């Protein structure tokens, strides 16, 4: 670790906070009353969309109607994306003449982009036409993020409103999140990426004659527009296989800082918006503080582990001063690679600027564990906020047990029904991750996909299902995930991780919105101070640790010990 | 559920047109006017021919050039399309090696690269980026330490003094922005183009 490295990390976090504060206020205003003055010209487009769709924007939905609308939208997204991928050979904008995507891969990819996971079992530059990238994948980068934001707003309204029946209108929330938030932000960031070097062209490839006289085919495409929403929507599905490590996707240190900024900014702004919408800005900062403590700890552990490097290289006279450079790019260095690793997994982004499989065992443990903590640090756009609210409810319940009072969060009584639904949501993650991993670890068809033996092989499997169920999308990419077994099972894991989580959460919101919002009294446990933040951090870590520690002990933890002992596989 | 089907289909189609077609076209339109070089891949022309992109590393094997980092990219085997062969710096198929830190394959590869490095660069500790594969397989840069360690051998091969090469490395080293953001680095294609411009001593 160097001071300059730590200064880079602090600088990027500071830039995120500086932007998230006004953005949080903007989001709160956008979904409370009227869209911002500056974007008035979009309003006619918005009303035209509602007219064509037969949506009355003034008519609100209860939790069930809201959830069903979201599911109907996701289902039609799945059908259309699957159809595009299966027919891309006959569609326009296919300059390199790629074939139709095979059925199992198309199934996996469609679910992947629909659930904001962006797990990539394919390699972009050898599989996807420009049409599939733009009108297929990038569209769902927008819509899955907007869907996440809409769901978070519905859950927020469960605390804003007292004795109410409805949580808002899904169509209005989703359209506004797209048109007034994600689209303008993406447009500006996309142009910044082009200025920094990311291509935006409809050509498929350029042939160069290298200095040594060889032919180099350089794949290219409309990348900057996709790069922007991939980060802002915490999607993470790269245009190319190497994702944000590819020099076109992420040309230099400034673009790298912009990538980290862009993936953090909306998820950081949402808790601030939450605090403002419930009328208690301090509550938003308290949630943000809990996210920040764990995320910064994660960044520092990765940075420390990677600068310590791989001791097995020392025997060949490799200078240990640079740390572990395997799977990293020179232009990012250790500090900004470490920050990217922790942020992309604390969020449910999943973009990578270094290969996670090549991290030291302790460095690789962090992204795996951050995903398993439930993707709430600060989590995907929207999904991070509602996930954090579930943990907050769990924390007041624990606090309530300790002092023997009925737990309350923001004036709403938390009773048996809410607790059952919150636990139902939380248990889906260990069920899916550990269940599928256990089967895959014994199935020859799955084990044939491993690229590494020993504990690293188990980590590859564990990472695949954690990433899928947590809707992250990053990978220990030695694993050959493009097989029927992994395409189908990770597809199921992604769908369960998104929908089996959010349906109970929405049911919980439906039950909470009907309750009276009681005034705070002297006996109320304050949920906006350091005590609550500490409790919340404890609940997140202990719950995650209890669920996943035994599996982690057999993967990255034992591998770290074996590496230090000089054992290889 | 049925009453949600019309809004689902209509809004999906309309938002596909806006975010999937209009948005990338608008970005491309502005980019083509404001940043044409970057928008088309930061290509480098020499004598009217494209010799590469300043952002994409290319493979150098000749002793007269600086060498980039080891690359793990591959290409389909021309003899059997179900298999792949090593193809360093294949810019149509980016990829890292994805070998874990305790992988015997990784250790063997680093041993081989370290021996090859010693054969040309001589004794002294090896810069880590010289024997590790990059994340993309297309890393355009090496560290200044790596470039410095290659200087003597390239000077011999080209009949130049080592001082001229060290001066060239210093001139080609890109420093962090404001002294903070980024890492010192040398673009391999850039420095090799500059090498070709140098006369002999």
Quick overview of this protein structure:
The complex is a heterodimer of chains A (569) and B (201). With 569 residues, chain A is mostly helical. Helix content of chain A is 63%, strand content 2%.
Report strand order across the widest sheet of chain A: 1-2
Oligomer: heterodimer
Q: Residue share in helices of chain B? A: 40-55%
Helix content of chain A: 55-70%
What is the average of the pLDDT values of chain A? Answer: 95
- The sequence of SSEs of chain A as H and E is HHHHHHHEEHHHHHHEEHHHHH
**How large is the share of residues in beta strands of chain A?**
under 5%
Give a count of the beta strands of chain A, DSSP E runs of length 2 or more: 4
pLDDT < 50 stretches of chain B = none
Radius of gyration of chain A: 23 Å
Task: Describe the protein.
Helix content of chain A is 63%, strand content 2%. Chain A is built from 18 helices and four strands. In chain A, a hairpin with a 2-residue loop joins β3 (408-409) and β4. In chain A, α3 runs antiparallel to α17 (484-513) and α9 (253-277) packs parallel to α11. Chain A starts with a helix and ends in a 5-residue tail after the last helix. Chain B is mainly alpha-helical and 201 residues long. In chain B, β3 (74-76) and β4 form a beta hairpin. In chain B, α4 (144-158) packs antiparallel against α5 (162-172) and α5 (162-172) packs across α6 (188-197). At the A-B interface, α1, α2, α3, α6 and α7 of A face α1, β2, α3, β5 and α6 of B.
